[in-house]
UniProtKB/TrEMBL annotation:
GO molecular function: hydrolase activity
PANTHER family per record: CARBOHYDRATE-BINDING DOMAIN-CONTAINING PROTEIN, SIMILAR TO POLYHYDROXYALKANOATE DEPOLYMERASE
Top-rank lineage group of the source organism: Bacteria
Signal sequence extent: 1-20
UniProt KW keywords: Signal
Protein name: Polyhydroxyalkanoate depolymerase
């Protein structure tokens, strides 16, 4: 045998993986200990299907490279090629479309399973007369959900269910239904892909649907067949308003082939391995042409105060009584954002009738207007843990149980209304308030404790510097600390000013962060901590006293207090870490001064001003992570929302609420001090620099069966009983959406 023939023979005997190079070899390396399974799949796949197998492995997410077995991949590839090659429309499907939108075994983050065998056996006969991919897709959409006994419901266990998980429950939301239709299409050789938006531009929620390839991409709603036609659906109006360059409001289609965009999955923001393409332009071209001054107004009927939609007869008439629309409102059989809409002239008033109730006047104002009608609740009276709204009699004096039920109801309404938007906001990686935007990054550590996770908001250094400098500090902060448990949240300051962490807008941004993490990551609002290094430490000095009632502890590293003082830290454990040689701006001297001040305050008030100040010997501005001990120190503390003494000193950024005290916005003045001591039902105002003060209470603080007494300089300002009030519960909940810091009664006193 000559050398040339021998080499050819030798290489033919080598495992296929040895010959892999470039992206394929890179994928095989990522497979780690599962590499043999990937190589086995490449070795055993028929030559005619090897391109497909190589494509799957080359673009495969790492979660699958390390877990999928050769047998699973070989079967998937075999059935995909078989369906494609036997389809009447095979010649209409380009090779790259087949590889990307027929061959893949999954669409998003769903459980990996062999749906292809089952669906091919079930549905091949259904589409045997179809001549085009569109015809087949329509037939499947009209039939498979009845065959599989699966219907739309937000009560499904997960958004990203696999077909078998949806079939087992008989329920799926738009994401799970879309996965099922895509898999049914692919099983019979129809190219299909998953499409969706993180958030409609009217902020009503997210949505997912399906695109079918037939001489270009066509769309349809899964389990929402629109007769024999594609490119129709209730969501066209919303989709046509999408914003291509806004990641929150754009429309994306999944791509198994690697792209530079990650599909924004609001149910799992951390999953970045599903790739996507931006297809917004296809949908904005569908924008409905309405006469000038006319917009669609939505109508929905809810069952009482619940979040359940009900189908009620709906009639809309103009001022002269001419009926413009009759029909029914959508119930829970329809997508959560699918509402009946009627084109109405802006500024005009219409007669709207729900069910057999009297007509109500509705003025068309536009801007994604949704008219919500609360249908009378015909259900029997709920049990003791009911979350029904208290009636007028209860308003005269709620019971403790009714207060708890009211808070539970408010939380349910708030979370139901906000969840989709907050998920989309978090998936976008940035929060926008007004004209300012705050990017962020976070990572979850440890197991979630029974009471909920901790939250560490960690502020980067930098300050008055070019954006690239602050960007670098932001990146550095991400790896600076690692809590044993909790959400480690690193925001990028919205500005590049010297005081970037204590400008007035920061309070609102951090309130939003806390709300989002409580909603999405199960954070316990009594275990929220702030920390910061250098300019971030400056922020801690300023934010901790003025936001103390929202925090459990705070840690300042290598920062400067500027003009702030520690009086407001009475109920907030506070730790300082400073390098002994950190002399710039006298930071080390300021830290020593605060150590003395805090010690004096604690000596005068042994139950308050818990603190720990560490000056690290020999260290300068960089403490070489010796300051990381601050995290376990903070973790020992939880927030006390109802302390027995409140010391409130207004900063240059003022607030109208602090623990169980409140003032009118007009009385919130920089430097004003309020100091109130609580002993059972007696409240002694020791200092008050405002003309009127509101004291709030709940059942943790007082005995509602006894009089509440408020005194100031020996004078009694109030002596009487308080009653638990629905309006106070609602007001104090709505202020911060903090269910553990809600009050049920209040009294306002004038300071003589």
């Amino acid at each position: 045998m000559n050398t040339k023939c021998f080499l050819a023979f030798f290489f033919a005997l080598l495992p296929v993986a040895v010959l892999a190079d470039g992206p394929l070899e890179s994928a095989l390396e990522k497979a780690g200990s599962n590499r043999k399974q990937m190589e086995l799949a490449l070795e055993q796949v028929p030559e005619a299907q090897r391109e497909g197998m190589a494509f799957l492995i080359e673009h495969m997410p790492e979660r699958d490279l390390t877990t999928l077995k050769a047998d699973f991949l070989l079967k998937n590839v075999q059935l995909a090629y078989q369906a494609w090659e036997s389809a009447p429309w095979k010649d209409q499907i380009p090779q790259h479309i087949f590889l990307n939108d027929v061959l893949p075994y999954a669409s998003i983050t769903e459980t990996r399973e062999d749906w292809r065998s089952d669906f091919h056996a079930r549905f091949s006969d259904l589409v045997k007369e179809a001549k085009t991919p569109s015809e087949a897709a329509v037939i499947l959409n009209q039939n498979i959900f009845q065959v599989l006994s699966v219907k739309y419901s937000t009560k499904r266990k997960r958004a990203d269910q696999s077909p078998s998980e949806s079939i087992e429950q008989g329920l799926a939301s738009c994401s799970g239904l879309s996965v099922m239709l895509i898999d049914a299409c692919r099983a019979v050789g129809v190219p299909a892909r998953f499409v969706g938006t993180p958030l409609w531009t009217n902020n009503s929620g997210n949505h997912s649907w399906v695109e079918i390839y037939d001489d270009g991409w066509q769309f349809t709603g899964a389990c929402e067949a629109t007769g024999p036609e594609l490119n129709q659906g209730w969501f066209i109006g919303n989709a046509s308003q999408a914003e291509r360059d806004n990641p929150l409001h754009a429309i994306y289609a999944t791509s198994y082939r690697t792209t530079s965009i990650a599909f924004p999955m609001v149910w799992d923001r951390r999953a970045q391995y599903v790739h996507a393409v931006n297809v917004t332009d296809r949908y904005t071209r569908l924008r409905e042409k309405l006469p000038e001054g006319v917009e669609r107004v939505g109508f929905v009927a809810m069952q009482g105060d619940s979040d359940q939609r009900v189908a009620l007869p709906l009639s809309v008439a103009d001022a002269a009584g001419k009926v413009l629309f009759t029909g029914k409102t959508n119930n829970e059989d329809f997508d959560r954002n699918d509402h009946v809409t009627v084109p109405l002239k802006l500024g005009e008033t219409y007669q709207v009738t729900f069910g057999d109730q009297p007509a109500k006047q509705v003025k068309a104002v536009g801007n994604h207007q949704l008219v919500v009608y609360k249908a009378p609740d015909s259900k029997p009276e709920a049990s003791q843990d009911s979350t029904k709204e208290p009636d007028a009699k209860e308003e005269a004096g709620l019971t403790p149980r009714q207060v708890r039920s009211q808070i539970a109801r408010l939380w349910k309404q708030y979370s139901g209304a906000e969840l989709a938007q907050r998920r989309a906001e978090t998936a976008s990686g940035k929060i926008q308030i007004g004209e300012r935007t705050m990017p962020f990054w976070y990572k979850v550590f440890g197991r979630k404790p029974k009471g909920g996770r901790s939250l560490y908001i960690s502020m980067h250094g930098g300050g008055g510097a070019p954006a690239r400098v602050n960007d670098g500090q932001y990146e550095n902060q991400k790896g600076l600390y690692q809590p044993a448990e909790g959400v480690y949240f690193v925001p990028r300051a919205p500005t590049d000013t010297w005081n970037l962490w204590h400008e007035a807008h920061i309070d609102d941004f951090f309130q939003r962060v806390i709300e989002n993490m409580v909603l999405l990551e199960g954070v316990n609002p009594d275990r929220v901590y702030i920390m910061g290094y250098s300019a971030g430490g400056d922020g801690v000095f300023q934010l901790a006293p003025r936001m103390a009632d929202r925090l459990a502890a705070a840690s300042m590293m290598a920062g400067h207090p500027n003009e702030t003082t520690p009086e407001g830290l009475r109920n907030l454990p506070f730790t300082i870490h400073m390098g002994e040689n950190d002399g710039a701006y006298d930071r080390n001297k300021k830290a020593a001064q605060w150590k003395t001040k805090l010690a004096e305050l604690h000596k005068q008030d042994p139950d308050g001003y818990i603190h720990e100040v560490t000056i690290h010997p020999g260290r300068g501005h960089w403490m070489n992570r010796q300051d990381a001990v601050a995290l376990p120190w903070m973790a020992k503390h939880t927030r006390n929302s109802t302390p027995d003494l409140v010391v409130w000193k207004q900063d240059d950024v003022t607030h109208n609420r602090f623990y169980w005290l409140a003032v009118d916005d007009t009385h919130a003045k920089t430097g004003a001090v309020v100091r109130v001591k609580r002993d059972g039902n007696t409240f002694e105002i020791e200092q008050c620099d405002v003309p009127k003060l509101t004291i709030r209470v709940n059942d943790e603080m007082i005995d509602f069966g006894k009089n509440v007494v408020v005194t100031y300089q020996g004078k009694t300002l109030f002596d009487g009983k308080l009653t638990r009030s629905k309006s106070v519960v609602e007001k104090t909940f709505d202020e911060r959406h903090d269910p553990t810091a809600v009050f049920s009664a209040e009294v306002e006193v004038a300071i003589p």
